[in-house]
Amino acid sequence: MPGYAHLTIIGHVGKDPESKDSKAGPMAKFSVGVTPRRDAETQWFNVTAWGKTAEVVLKYVKKGGAVLVAGDLQVRSYQAKDGQTKQSVDVNAREVVLLGKRDEAVEAKSGGGGKFQPPPSPMNDEDLPF
Questions:
Q1: What is the pLDDT of residue 76?
Q2: How far apart are alpha carbons 120 and 115 in whole angstroms?
Q3: Rounded to an integer, what distance in angstroms lies between the CA atom of residue 79 and that of residue 7?
Q4: Over the Cα atoms of the chain, what is R_g?
Q5: Do residues 42 and 35 lie in contact, with contact meaning Cβ atoms separated by under 8 Å?
Q6: How far apart are CA 72 and CA 64, in angstroms?
Q7: Can you give the pTM of this predicted structure?
Q8: Number of helices and strands (H, E) in the chain?
Q9: Are 29 and 53 in contact (CB under 8 A)?
Q10: For 116, phi and psi rounded to 5 degrees?
Q11: Using 50, 70 and 90 to split pLDDT, how confident is the model at 96?
Q12: What CA–CA distance (Å, rounded) separates 128 from 97?
């Protein structure tokens, strides 16, 4: 049975997304830092978004912004300039959700047809059944 590595992270964007052109269409690359506890070291994830998701990322995602990223996990090894072998944790984003003020929230999903709307406003107290 083939394996599947899916990852969901919530963190802050390390730098503004970079636009890259590819044969498959628009591509956006950015990094997300996740700090599980105040006394813990920040873990960095490289994120790549494609297509409509990349278009939304390039338009709305900014350095320092809080995001939720869900996608496929890929761990790769590479040779650093100092000759040491290091590992990089990459996420091929299927979904990117901007976290922040409700009226500024934007969700991008792969294959979503380009229709991105903020989530509905919360109910008023008068709308509650109790």
A1: 87
A2: 15
A3: 25
A4: 17
A5: yes
A6: 23
A7: 0.70
A8: 1, 7
A9: no
A10: -120, 120
A11: very high
A12: 27
